[in-house]
Specification:
Blueprint lengths: L2 E5 L3 H13 L3 E5 L2 H8 L9 E4 L7 H10 L10
Parallel strand pairs: 1-2, 1-3
Length: 81
């Protein structure tokens, strides 16, 4: 089963997206913040996934900037976001 890392602060949107992705056959790991995502991705063996679904920040957030910069790095650049 393909694994997706879902990063969404809103509990309502997180639940809706998780339900939809699960119904499509994905295993979904839900994270509630960019900080949580940065921590998870700092240990790639613990956060194995085939894709990432990340919400766009509603306001300027340096942790979101850090996350999106990390995802552009060589380690993660082949991962669909």
């Amino acid at each position: 089963m393909p694994r997706i890392l879902l990063i969404e602060a809103s509990a309502t949107r997180r639940r809706a997206l998780s339900t939809m992705l699960s119904q499509k056959g994905f295993e979904v790991r839900m994270l509630t913040s960019y900080s949580e995502a940065l921590s998870a991705l700092a240990h790639p063996s613990q956060s194995e996934c085939e894709a990432i679904v990340a919400s766009w920040p509603e306001y300027s957030d340096h942790r979101a900037d850090d996350l999106f910069s990390m995802l552009r790095s060589r380690t993660w650049q082949s991962l669909p976001v």
